[in-house]
Amino acid sequence: MARPKPIANARRLRRDMTRFERRLWSLLRQRPEGLKFRRQHPACGFIADFACVEARLIIELDGGQHADQQAADARRTAVLEANGWQVMRFWNLTLDEAPLMAADQIIETALTRIRAFQWEQASPD
User: Could you tell me which residue ranges the DUF559 domain spans (predicted)?
Assistant: First the structure.
């Protein structure tokens, strides 16, 4: 049986991560605060750089080519957000200059979203 193309692409991208993706992954893979992050996660027909599924949070790293892709990225973000995902974007330069700050922002956002989901489920209608 042939594998679906998005999954094969995600596997290839996991093998060929950029140095910026590797730097962020080294921080997120440790399951900070018990959060599970995935690399190159298929979502809504796209492959996100990173995702925390429990928080419905996608993290995208943007390089120098990003200025040329802003319209496509905006459409992609709109589709993801319409399907309940929040998208966080970081410039690659941020991962060089302040990787811990980026990781802290990601972790705090994920925890905030999870708490909000739990509160919504627990509150009576």
Answer: 8-108
Angle of the 99-122 helix axis to the 19-28 helix axis, nearest 10? 50
- DSSP letter, residue 43: E
Q: Is the dihedral of CA 14, 44, 104, 35 positive or negative?
A: negative
**Cα separation of 92 and 94, whole Å?**
5
Ranges of each domain in the chain: 5-122
Complete DSSP assignment for 70-119: HHHHHHHHHHHHHTT-EEEEEEHHHHHH-HHHHHHHHHHHHHHHHHHHHH
The CATH class for the domain spanning 5-122 reads alpha beta
Q: pTM for this structure?
A: 0.83
Residues 30, 20 contacting (CB under 8 angstroms): no
Write out pLDDT tens, residues 55-65.
Answer: 999 999 998 76
Start-to-end Cα distance in the chain: 45
